[in-house]
Amino acid sequence: MAGLGQNWIEEPNRPDFAYSMAVIGDPQVINGYHPEHYAEIYDYVLRNRERDCTKLAIVLGDVTERSQDEEWARVRAALTRWKAAELPFTVIRGNPYHDRAPLFNEHLGDLIREQYDGLYAEDDVCNGYRLITVGQTDYLILGLDFGPEDAVLAWAGEVCAQYPDRRVIVVTHGYLNRGGELIKRGEDYVNDGGMAYHGAKNGGIEIWDKLIACHENIVMVLCGHVGENGIEHTVRVGNHGNRVVELLIDPQDIDDQVMPTGMVATLFFSADGKRVTVHNYSTVQKRYYGDVFTVEVDGVR
């Protein structure tokens, strides 16, 4: 892969697809240091909703840089526009330095609560799930907090078991490291994504062992937290022989060290939901970034 911020590509051919999901990874650098571009990330999704047949928008945490009021106001304004347009969305909390839980609930709680069909705790929107049916496929979108504690993972497992016929997409902040390895919950900030440093109760390895690997209807995991030069993707096999597609989507290093990008990843699904092609577009630079790839997704067994 080209060096950081050097993997721009020509506009890719649009795949055959039936619908899409838009994914925004870790936009905190834009919010904190390039606020004039923040709204455009979210508005791009809205403008292209009909063209891309967007059925769900997902934000992978770290929506602010320093948890300041003006940053939260920008996030709330963007999500309010999504709500007004009746675009379904899932937004999860990032690590505590950026998206402190009390402020996450205070500034965004009412908006996010409306998007969930169930919550782990009624007074906290950091863990919840929504049910959505798109075409031929029934989905369960499971939004989990950063480094969730054991009780949350147990609850998440119960939700998966409650809906065995739905394909589960798990959305959490810290899970994969660069190279597609599961994050270790150690003390080394550079090598483990700072999970322990930021107070995580479980890292990627524990989330896999205690939740993801245990349920055959989990077909995909989306995460951020660790800055990546493009989109990292891998496939892991669960305890039941099911394939789990894992995507790390986080442009923060490019935003911070090279140029503001305001990336939006679009996941284009086939009609049966079993084939996904991924494009990555910079709403600031107005061009595409990184390799285009297609992954096969399991159905419910």
CATH top-level class: Alpha Beta
Low-confidence stretches: none
Mean pLDDT: 95
N/C terminus separation: 36 Å
Structural class: alpha/beta
Helix content: 25-40%
Number of strands: 15
Order of helices and strands: EEHHHEHEHEEEHEHHEEEHEEEE
Give the CA-based shape. globular
If you consult CATH, what is the topology?
Purple Acid Phosphatase, chain A, domain 2
Main beta sheet strand tally, sense and closure: 8 strands, mixed
Multimerization state: single chain
> What portion of residues belong to β-strands?
25-35%
In CATH terms, the superfamily is Metallo-dependent phosphatases
Over all CA atoms, what is the radius of gyration?
A: 17 Å
Number of H/I helices: 9
CATH architectural type: 4-Layer Sandwich
Provide the domain count.
1
Give an account of the 3D structure.
This protein has helices spanning 28-33, 38-47, 49-52, 69-84, 101-113, 150-162, 189-192, 204-210, 252-257; strands at residues 8-9, 19-24, 54-59, 89-91, 118-121, 124-134, 137-143, 167-174, 218-224, 231-237, 243-249, 263-269, 275-282, 287-289, 293-296. The chain has 301 residues and is an alpha/beta fold. It has a single domain, classed as Metallo-dependent phosphatases (Purple Acid Phosphatase, chain A, domain 2), CATH 3.60.21. The strands form two sheets. Strands 1, 2, 3, 4, 12, 13, 14 and 15 form an eight-stranded mixed β-sheet that branches. It has a seven-stranded mixed β-sheet with strand order 5-6-7-8-9-11-10. Strand 7 (137-143), helix 6 (150-162) and strand 8 form a beta-alpha-beta unit. The protein is globular, with a radius of gyration of 17 Å. It starts with 7 loop residues before the first strand and ends in a 5-residue tail after the last strand.
